[in-house]
Amino acid sequence: MMPTVATHIGKFMIRSMGGNTRSIDYGVNWIIIEPMRLRPFLLCLAAALFPIHGQATSGIFGFVDDEGIEHLSNIPNDKRYRLVLADRFEPARVALRQPRGVLALPYGQRPFHDSVMRASSATGVDAKLLHAVITVESGYNRDAVSPKGATGLMQLLPTTARRYGTVNLRDPGENIGAGARYLRDLLAMFDNNLELALAAYNAGENAVLRHGNRLPPYAETQRYVPLVLAHYRRMNASQGWH
Fold first, then answer.
1. Do 125 and 229 belong together in one domain?
2. Which of 70, 90, 137, 174 is catalytic?
3. What is the pLDDT confidence band of residue 67, given thresholds at 50, 70 and 90?
4. Which of 86, 118, 143 is the last residue of a domain?
5. Structure confidence by residue, pLDDT tens digits, 170-180
6. Of the candidates 21, 93, 7, 19, the residue with the CA atom closest to the CA atom of residue 56
7. Which of 116, 137, 190, 240 is the most exposed place for a label (fewest CB within 10 A)?
C-alpha cells in the first residue's frame, strides 16, 4: 500500500495503510513514495538532512519500539538507538580535533605518498591537496567502496575512471593518478577556484554548472568542501607536516 509522510514539529512520521509507522527527527512536507523504497528513502533523506541543522553527528541511528514504530534520528537520545547509517566523513572530521592513526602522520609519511608525488608531478596538482582529498574520501582505505560504487583511495566512480583510462580502481597508483587528472581538469574548468573544483569532484561538474558556478545546495557537498579545505590548510600551515 502507498505510505504518506506527515509533517510534525521537529519530526516526521511515515505511516502506511498497512499500519507500519516510521519516524525521523525533522519536519518535511507531505510526500508519497513507493513502499519497497521506503527504508532507502528514509536513510537517504535523513543523511541529507542531519548536517543542515548543525548538530554534531556521527551517523543515523534507529530502533523499533514496542508498537512496531521504526525511529530514525541523528541524535541517539534513547538507549535503544543503534547505528544504521555511518557518516563517512566522521573520521576526517574527528581527525581535525584529535588525529589518530594514519591521519596523525605528517602527509609525507602517510601511505601511498610515492604514488601521490608521482601524480602531483604529472598533473601539477598539489600533493597536499591530493592527500587532503584522500583523507576525506577514504581515510587511506584502498578498498573503500561507497553505496554509489565510488571506489578506492580517491573514491572514483567507474564512469569517471574510464574517462582517464583507469581499469583497476583498487590499485593505488591508478586510482590516485586518475583522481589527480580529474582534479586538474576541474581546476581548469573552474578557473582554479578550489572550492568549485572540490564541489564538482563531490557532486559532479554539471551540478556546479547548473547552479551558476556556485556551491550546489547539497548537504553532503556543503560538508565535503570545507572539510577537504580544512585538511589542506592544516597540511600547508603545520610545521613538520612533510
1. yes
2. 137
3. confident
4. 86
5. 999 999 999 99
6. 93
7. 240
CATH number assigned to the domain comprising residue 219:
1.10.530.10
Domain boundary among 66, 86, 106: 86
In this predicted model, what pLDDT tens digit does every residue of 230-240 receive, in sequence order? 999 999 987 54
The average pLDDT across 69-97 equals 77
Residue 44, pLDDT > 70, answer no
Any domain includes 79: yes
The answer to whether position 127 is within a domain reads yes
In order, the DSSP letters of the chain are: ---EEEEETTEEEEE-TTS-EEEESS-----B--GGGHHHHHHHHHHHHGGGGT---SEEEEEE-TTSEEEEESS--STT-EEEEE-TTHHHHHHHHS--GGGGS-GGGSTTHHHHHHHHHHH---HHHHHHHHHHHTTT-TT-B-TT--BTTTTB-HHHHHHTT---TTSHHHHHHHHHHHHHHHHHHTTT-HHHHHHHHHH-HHHHHHTTSS--S-HHHHHHHHHHHHHHHHHHHSTT--
Mean pLDDT of the residues in the chain: 79
220 is catalytic: no
Q: Is 242 within the bounds of a domain?
A: no
pTM of the model: 0.70
